[in-house]
Amino acid sequence: MNVFDYVVVSIDGDYANLRRTDVEGEELKLVARALLPDGIREGSRLHYEWMEYTLVE
């Protein structure tokens, strides 16, 4: 099971660029916004587990 934490680096239309917080120099991950929770913005922190993204407050 993969568990990762991400930060939203940028939002471009229907996609968001995410960066893992535990790995330096990791490439950005492009994810469709339809797969992400409502209310995200640049700088939002996300938790990924069981193929689901949740917003970390």
How many domains make up the coordinates?
Answer: 1
Query: Can you tell me the CATH superfamily?
Result: Nucleic acid-binding proteins
Number of DSSP helical runs: 0
Broad shape: globular
Number of DSSP strand runs:
5
Structural class by sheet pairing and helices: mainly beta
Taking the sheet with the most strands, its summary is: 5 strands, antiparallel
Radius of gyration: 10 Å
**N- and C-termini, Cα separation:** 23 Å
Quote the beta fraction. Answer: over 45%
Question: How do the strands and helices of this protein lay out in sequence?
Answer:
Layout (H helix, E strand, L loop, with lengths): L2 E10 L2 E6 L8 E4 L12 E5 L2 E5 L1
Antiparallel strand pairs: 1-2, 1-4, 2-3, 4-5
Structural features:
mainly beta; 57 residues; 0% helix
Structural description of this entry:
It is a single chain. With 57 residues, the protein is mainly β. It has a single domain, classed as Beta Barrel (OB fold (Dihydrolipoamide Acetyltransferase, E2P)), CATH 2.40.50.140. The protein is 0% helix and 53% strand. The protein has no helices and five strands. The chain has strands at 3-12, 15-20, 29-32, 45-49, 52-56. The protein has a five-stranded antiparallel β-sheet, with no helix packed on it. The protein is globular. The termini are far apart.
Summarize the structure.
This protein is an all-beta fold and 57 residues long.
